[in-house]
Amino acid sequence: MKKRRLIDKAARWLITLGGAATIFAVLALFVFLFIEVYPLLRGAKVLKEKTFSLNGKIISLGVDEYQEIAYTVSHDGTIEFISLSDGSIVNTYLIAGLKNSTITSVDKDENRLVLGTNDGRILKVLITFSESFDNEKKVIIPEVSEKEPVQIDDQKRTLRNITSRSDDSATVTVVSTEDGRLLLKSTEDVSTLFDGEKKEIKRDITDLVKRYQPNGLHEPHNSILYSSGLGNGTDITSLALDHFMENLYVGTSSGEIFHINISDKENPSLQEKVRVSDKAVTTLGFLFGDISLVVGDYRGGVNIWMQVRDETSPSGWMLKKIHTLKSHNAPVIAFAPSLRDKGFVTSAANGTIYLNHATSEQNVLIFKVPATPAALTFSPKADGILAASSNNNLFQWIISNPHPEITLKTLFGKVWYEGYEKPEFVWQSTGGTDDFEPKLSLVPLIFGTIKGTVYSMIIAVPIGIFAALYTSQFLHKSLKIIKPVIELMAALPSVILGFLAGLWLAPLIERVFPAIVIMPLFIILSIALALYLWRCLPSWIKGKYRYGAEALFLIPFIIGAIYVSIQLNGVSESVLFGGDYRQWLLHILGLNYDQRNALIVGFAMGFAVIPLIFTISEDAMSNVPNNLTSASLALGATTWHTAVRVVLPTASPGIFSAVMIGFGRAVGETMIVLMATGNTPIMGWNLFNGFRALAANIAVEMPEAPVGGTLYRVLFLAALLLFVTTFIVNTFAETVRQKMKRRYSKL
């Protein structure tokens, strides 16, 4: 007796320890996932802030990628290189081509400065930084080179605004003068049969922005056009030219933007004229990639516009506002884009500086300086901001901003991405260019998970439950070996099922799809025929079948129905689908047929889930007390009525548990979904296209995700969503099961 008590006590402690260990493991998993996701919830922060004194009035500003040396450009052409460690001047360079002129405007194209002067000339200055090592210490060496100045305005008027872009063979520069003239200069290397030559074009395109609406020019629905040109109180306030050197945008004091197509440099044309603000446009600039145009106005508004396809426009494109950021409450006077992502820095006349992100439409950080910012720059690695103020101070902020594109809206809401015609749910984590805009909406993945689960459960639940009902209530005991055979199906690796589904089942169903459509009808007819023949058979033949083994009589008929359906595949395609079921689905129902689609996943994942539902449901039905079934039969109920009216309700808690366990298996399935679908994160209930589930997405993306990066942490967020969803569903299922158990245990 003492030994038995000791064994019972040890068993009780062992079971308790096992339960506690399980709870601890679940909590530890949750904590680990949350720790990996938590950095997404934290915003940007300032790591260090410095202030230095400057000499003279600054018009432009820059910094090397390591934030060790900054440079300032003053109106008199002096370039000073400043050490950001102690504020000392490392080097000074005087632009030789400036002579006695003054810099009045500047445009920055990466490390190339294009300067406009007060005598109508443009100067191009290239500032680079090289690295060397002195006694194993890295030394940053600034280098300056300049080209010969070019007289763009023969009348030597002051250049108020300037924009310029260049590549290996061409350079395009556009300036506006103090009296409102708009001048374009293009230089292009042209190859000839024997030699190369430079083709230079210089045009005055002022008439394009002075002219009233040209004949045939489309008036966008979101614009208000004015009959007054620049000669009636409307001045050019800002210019922006994309790196394709095809689209020029001109901002005006009336709040309008003129979009000029300069792809044909000899014959530029006005594309459209759009009202973007009721106040003057003060700042224009492109985000990284030169697709999205940032527009700042005198009221403090910051909006992002983009060319969007529009069938109502003669050109097929229209400038539309895609993002709106928080107002600065003062004129926006400076803009600096990030060279890493869709972030940018803006400054207002009241001394406020904003770090913004276009995709998430958020002001990530806000800084305040005591005077109006005169120049602004964003470090090449997007980890620092520098601003020169009008009171000759240089401010530096070293920042940490690892996940600016993540908000609840970008994860779970519709976002208007570059290149899209409207806001959409999109998952696309990588692209082919450095200026790619990550699209990290989890909605298509959640939808794909639900879609795959629903289709697989539609197949697995009825088959699993009815098979369990037949096995437990009707099948002869000598044939109970069927149950362990079905249970063995659960041991099949999902990667094998996915492999077979993707490489064998998908091509097979694609070939015999019309036969699949007519197959249910032929199977029903074959069962009806088998039932009729069974009733017509003499008793001595029926007696050879044991009670509960009659279903074996159906097998040849079902196989025959499947064979006939496949043989009639071509005929059914001609009769039902006009000879080509793919074209019929596309033109009649508007559905595309992909070889690896949700139907394939439904079959394959349903096959994987059926053993779980069958086994648990069969155990629940077999454990219904015999006194209940015997009482039902004794009162005259048939076996079928007893199974439906007594066994199913009594076993419903176990059946419900079976369905929920199967649901959990389907939600978390990875390899079948990965291999049997096109793995495309699209939304739509179309049975014949693919999808991407959360679990499959983690398997696909995780090997390519940089540790600690945004994609890495979003994938952990997807895992956390799966974990929490499964936990909530299982908790709910257990609650329902207990209520059902208490209800039917009283029978």
From TrEMBL:
| Organism of origin | Candidatus Jettenia ecosi
The answer, when asked if Protein biosynthesis is one of the entry's keywords, is no
What is the membrane topology here?
A: Multi-pass membrane protein
| Gene3D superfamilies, sorted | MetI-like, YVTN repeat-like/Quinoprotein amine dehydrogenase
Query: Mind giving the lineage of the organism this protein is from?
Result: Bacteria, Pseudomonadati, Planctomycetota, Candidatus Brocadiia, Candidatus Brocadiales
Domain ABC transmembrane type-1 span(s) in chain numbering: 446-733
Q: Does the keyword Iron apply?
A: no
Name of the protein in its database record: Phosphate transport system permease protein PstC
Which family does the record assign?
Answer: Belongs to the binding-protein-dependent transport system permease family.
